[in-house]
Write a structure and sequence with these properties.
The chain is mainly α. Helices cover 77% and strands 5% of the residues. A four-stranded mixed sheet has the order 2-1-4-3. The two termini are 16 Å apart.
């Protein structure tokens, strides 16, 4: 009985050690893709900026079209007045038309200035778009490389996880089924430790003082002792064989 319990507890410790390592590896695996988050944020930031600039270019081009039409109408007016100048009879009439012509020409030259200004703005914005797109191209190439790296790291960790699971699974048949299922329930529930050492008279999991009888039972190795406070399985470190030593007698026991 004692030997059986010793074996179970020592194997559980081994299983637990592997399962805790598995939790760490699985968390690492989940965390790896987050390294790309900053990259993705930077890329989408630039993409948004490019979209905003393109938008404002479109706005400027609409404005420019309106100004073109305005300019056209000014020039048409000038042509019309110039034609009328040939038909008028008096100098006063001629001068009045001349004044209109000058006014329209001044107005048109203001419009042309505005058009020029807009063209310069569009040119500057198009230069910016080009600049951003060059940066984007580089960033996209970099993230493709990083994604490959991340995939590789995930796969590598995946292999380690599977290997560790295989190692753990090898240990399971050597543990009494009832003890094992108890452990598995507790581990699933606690997500950290299901089997904890007795530390003097306290539970190594929750640090509560145990009733003397419970502490003695842990040392006796006759039965599975559960902490009444945190429901973890207790073991006495001095009482059970070390991991390496435990494997031998157990395999002999199961073989015999
Ligand atoms: Zn406890």
């Amino acid at each position: 009985m004692q030997q059986r319990m010793k074996n179970d507890l020592s194997r559980l410790l081994d299983v637990q050690e592997k399962e805790r390592r598995l939790l760490v590896l699985e968390e690492e695996q989940r965390a790896i893709p987050r390294a790309l988050d900053a990259f993705r944020r930077r890329i989408s930031g630039i993409e948004n900026e490019v979209a905003a600039i393109k938008n404002s270019i479109q706005g400027l081009q609409v404005k420019r079209k309106d100004l073109d039409l305005e300019s056209e109408s000014k020039l048409e007016a000038v042509a019309k007045y110039q034609k009328q100048q040939f038909e008028v009879k008096t100098n006063v009439e001629y001068q009045a038309l001349q004044k209109e012509i000058v006014n329209r020409k001044v107005e048109n030259s203001r419009i042309e200035d505005k058009i020029l200004e807009i063209m310069e703005q569009v040119e500057e914005k198009e230069r910016l778009v080009k600049e951003h797109e060059d940066v984007l191209k580089g960033e996209r190439e970099r993230i493709t490389v990083e994604e490959k790296k991340v995939e590789g790291e995930i796969a590598k960790l995946g292999e380690q996880i599977v290997a560790l699971q295989v190692e753990r699974d090898k240990l399971l048949p050597g543990i009494s089924p009832k003890v094992l299922s108890k452990y598995q329930r507790i581990f699933k529930n606690k997500r950290d430790t299901a089997i904890v050492p007795l530390v003097d008279y306290t539970c190594g999991g929750c640090h509560m003082l145990l009733p003397p009888q419970a502490a003695n039972n842990v040392r006796k190795l006759d039965e599975l002792v559960i902490c009444e406070n945190c429901s973890r399985i207790l073991y006495w470190a001095d009482g059970i064989a070390k991991e390496g030593e435990a494997a031998q007698p157990v395999s002999q026991e199961t073989a015999g």
